[in-house]
């Protein structure tokens, strides 16, 4: 089935009728790709087009109507707050708690891993608040990509979009590989027994995992059939999963030994924050719930309850589970691959490891399901803007699901899961996620304090200066921590400077917009704190992960300059031409037509 955006005159995006097709026009319908000579002209205009996209911001109405219409069929509004709560729980509780807890307790934080979970949980909750306000006001499938397009513009949205897609592929791959480990444990094997060792490959990519590929393929089938059906299946599995978690806590505490907690902070404060940066992986998934806003019956009520409720429940369970694990075993003896199963076996409850493994498999299955639903909706909305081929934006008219995007994302996830070690995946995933969450917090400040045509130049400049100062002081604090600066003197300078920057924004820049339905409390303090914590946790991640992140970002920029820039430019100009034509035909009040280019927006 193909649906494109069409011949709008000067915009040069050709329209196709819905139907089964994989022709060139389904992937590159824009004028810039109509011939090699047209593409050459587009490349020669790269500088001017990039300048245009750097300053262009989408309108809310464009995201809600014109962009969404490019998928052809609409997604079904079937979901309630009950669905969202269980999607949130199902999305978050999986490989993070069942695998990374053991890894970080043993190697990074010791019993203080519970404090690491608190730090990560606070950061995640602040991000949840920011996401919730956007999801209520702009209930579309694009999630943070759509929010950043509206507030920070096309270019920043694309950079974030690439990292969103990387986040989902890596997250799904990590969970799928963990699924294999617990499946092996359930069958009384070592966690790595079902992987194939390829000695000719690098050590980090030599443990091949065919079971992970099969699991991802099965999840793909569920995800494309029905969102509501996936939701029902998810909350049944999630309820069973919660029951298993309660069993782990109760049974584990019967084998508790408080002596295991005596060396509580063996690795010091640095170990706590280093573990927090990696354990942020355990909270990843709630942003997938925001992508379901387009399918929610009452976004203003359902999204706040769903997101905040799921995150509160998840954080509480994580902390109790971490304490339980550290009470059962000395941190140095915790198994990094299947910590809870091995802990029960070592404490004489060998039978319990099968319940733990079963529960872990249930949890990881729900994480994969929700991830598959969320990542497809991100890619669908990105493709609606033509930054990715519009063939990926198609929504199947019978199932109401984005089949092409779902299959494409899960194929990429399966390839990564087949080769890549979990430790590489978790660190790289945390960088992408923390970076995106930081951008969403910045976008929320822009949303509250800047409205084009209403905010004065003086207030706009003060806003830009305050945000720059918040970012600079946050980066300075994270840099001091990352390079292991001795003493507390640098932090006595950078932390009060961050506080002063936020206070200046609060005192000297008036808010230009109030939330219509639901708003983040204590603005600008909570978004600013979210920026500071996310940037600080970035400073705790190893340098090799930043190198991989840099390589991926460079690849994104190459794609954008040669493909995404020209496709999205043509599409935006086509939309502006349609709006201008509509303005001539209809009687108006003198204001620009909705979606027209005006003051850097369209």
From TrEMBL:
<keyword id="KW-0472">Membrane</keyword>
<feature type="transmembrane region" description="Helical">
    <location>
        <begin position="517"/>
        <end position="537"/>
    </location>
</feature>
<feature type="transmembrane region" description="Helical">
    <location>
        <begin position="233"/>
        <end position="253"/>
    </location>
</feature>
<keyword id="KW-0813">Transport</keyword>
<comment type="similarity">
    <text>Belongs to the amino acid-polyamine-organocation (APC) superfamily. Cationic amino acid transporter (CAT) (TC 2.A.3.3) family.</text>
</comment>
<dbReference type="InterPro" id="IPR029485">
    <property type="entry name" value="CAT_C"/>
</dbReference>
<feature type="transmembrane region" description="Helical">
    <location>
        <begin position="112"/>
        <end position="134"/>
    </location>
</feature>
<feature type="transmembrane region" description="Helical">
    <location>
        <begin position="463"/>
        <end position="484"/>
    </location>
</feature>
<dbReference type="Pfam" id="PF13906">
    <property type="entry name" value="AA_permease_C"/>
</dbReference>
<dbReference type="Pfam" id="PF13520">
    <property type="entry name" value="AA_permease_2"/>
</dbReference>
<feature type="transmembrane region" description="Helical">
    <location>
        <begin position="400"/>
        <end position="419"/>
    </location>
</feature>
<feature type="transmembrane region" description="Helical">
    <location>
        <begin position="208"/>
        <end position="226"/>
    </location>
</feature>
<keyword id="KW-1133">Transmembrane helix</keyword>
<feature type="domain" description="Cationic amino acid transporter C-terminal">
    <location>
        <begin position="518"/>
        <end position="568"/>
    </location>
</feature>
<keyword id="KW-0029">Amino-acid transport</keyword>
<keyword id="KW-0812">Transmembrane</keyword>
<protein>
    <recommendedName>
        <fullName>Cationic amino acid transporter C-terminal domain-containing protein</fullName>
    </recommendedName>
</protein>
<dbReference type="GO" id="GO:0015189">
    <property type="term" value="F:L-lysine transmembrane transporter activity"/>
</dbReference>
<dbReference type="InterPro" id="IPR002293">
    <property type="entry name" value="AA/rel_permease1"/>
</dbReference>
<feature type="transmembrane region" description="Helical">
    <location>
        <begin position="79"/>
        <end position="100"/>
    </location>
</feature>
<feature type="transmembrane region" description="Helical">
    <location>
        <begin position="549"/>
        <end position="569"/>
    </location>
</feature>
<feature type="transmembrane region" description="Helical">
    <location>
        <begin position="265"/>
        <end position="286"/>
    </location>
</feature>
<dbReference type="GO" id="GO:0005886">
    <property type="term" value="C:plasma membrane"/>
</dbReference>
<feature type="transmembrane region" description="Helical">
    <location>
        <begin position="307"/>
        <end position="331"/>
    </location>
</feature>
<dbReference type="GO" id="GO:0005313">
    <property type="term" value="F:L-glutamate transmembrane transporter activity"/>
</dbReference>
<feature type="transmembrane region" description="Helical">
    <location>
        <begin position="431"/>
        <end position="451"/>
    </location>
</feature>
<feature type="transmembrane region" description="Helical">
    <location>
        <begin position="351"/>
        <end position="379"/>
    </location>
</feature>
<feature type="transmembrane region" description="Helical">
    <location>
        <begin position="490"/>
        <end position="510"/>
    </location>
</feature>
């Amino acid at each position: 089935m193909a649906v494109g955006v069409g011949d709008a005159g000067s915009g040069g995006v050709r329209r196709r009728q819905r139907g089964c097709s994989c022709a060139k026009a389904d992937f590159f319908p824009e004028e810039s790709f109509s011939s090699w000579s047209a593409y050459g002209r587009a490349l020669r205009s790269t500088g001017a087009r990039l300048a245009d996209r750097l300053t262009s911001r989408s309108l809310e109405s464009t995201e809600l109507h014109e962009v969404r219409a490019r998928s052809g069929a609409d997604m079904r509004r079937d979901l309630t707050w009950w669905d969202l709560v269980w999607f949130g729980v199902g999305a978050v509780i999986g490989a993070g708690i069942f695998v990374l807890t053991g890894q970080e307790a043993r190697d990074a934080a010791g019993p203080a891993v519970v404090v690491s979970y608190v730090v990560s949980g606070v950061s995640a909750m602040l991000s949840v608040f920011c996401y919730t306000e956007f999801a209520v006001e702009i209930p579309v499938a694009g999630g943070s990509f759509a929010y950043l397009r509206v507030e920070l513009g096309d270019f920043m949205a694309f950079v974030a979009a690439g990292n969103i897609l990387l986040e989902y592929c890596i997250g799904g791959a990590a969970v799928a590989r963990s699924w294999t480990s617990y499946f092996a444990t359930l069958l009384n094997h070592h966690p790595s027994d079902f992987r194939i060792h390829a000695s000719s490959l690098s050590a980090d990519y030599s443990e091949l995992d065919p079971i992970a590929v099969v699991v991802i393929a099965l999840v793909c089938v569920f995800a494309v059939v029905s969102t509501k059906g996936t939701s029902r299946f998810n909350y049944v599995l999630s309820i069973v999963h919660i029951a298993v978690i309660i069993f782990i806590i109760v049974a584990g505490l019967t084998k508790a030994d408080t002596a295991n907690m005596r060396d509580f902070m063996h690795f010091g404060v640095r170990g706590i924050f280093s573990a927090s940066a990696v354990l942020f992986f355990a909270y990843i998934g709630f942003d997938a719930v925001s992508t379901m806003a387009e399918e929610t019956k009452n976004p203003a009520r359902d999204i706040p309850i769903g997101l905040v409720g799921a995150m509160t429940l998840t954080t509480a369970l994580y902390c109790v589970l971490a304490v339980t694990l550290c009470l059962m075993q000395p941190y140095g003896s915790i198994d990094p691959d299947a910590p809870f199963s091995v802990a029960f076996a070592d404490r004489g409850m060998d039978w319990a490891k099968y319940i733990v493994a079963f529960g872990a498999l249930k949890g990881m299955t729900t994480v994969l399901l929700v991830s598959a639903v969320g990542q497809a909706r991100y890619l669908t909305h990105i493709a609606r803007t033509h930054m990715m081929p519009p063939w990926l934006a198609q929504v199947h008219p019978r199932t109401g699901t984005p089949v092409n995007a779902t299959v494409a994302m899960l194929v990429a996830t399966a390839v990564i899961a087949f080769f890549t070690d979990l430790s590489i995946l978790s660190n790289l995933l945390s960088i992408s996620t923390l970076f995106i969450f930081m951008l969403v917090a910045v976008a929320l400040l822009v949303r509250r304090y800047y409205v084009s045509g209403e905010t004065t130049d003086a207030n706009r400049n003060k806003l830009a200066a305050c945000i720059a100062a918040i970012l600079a002081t946050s980066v300075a604090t994270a840099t001091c921590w990352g390079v292991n600066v001795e003493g507390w003197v640098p932090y006595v300078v950078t932390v009060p400077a961050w506080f002063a920057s936020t206070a200046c924004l609060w005192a000297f820049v008036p808010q230009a917009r109030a939330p219509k339905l639901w708003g983040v409390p204590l603005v600008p303090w909570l978004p600013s704190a979210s920026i500071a914590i996310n940037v600080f946790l970035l400073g705790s991640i190893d340098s090799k992960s930043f190198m991989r992140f840099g390589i991926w970002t460079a690849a994104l920029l190459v794609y954008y300059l040669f493909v995404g820039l020209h496709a999205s430019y043509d599409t935006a100009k086509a939309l502006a031409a349609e709006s201008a034509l509509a303005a001539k035909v209809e009687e108006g009040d003198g204001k620009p037509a909705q979606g027209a280019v005006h003051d850097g927006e369209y």
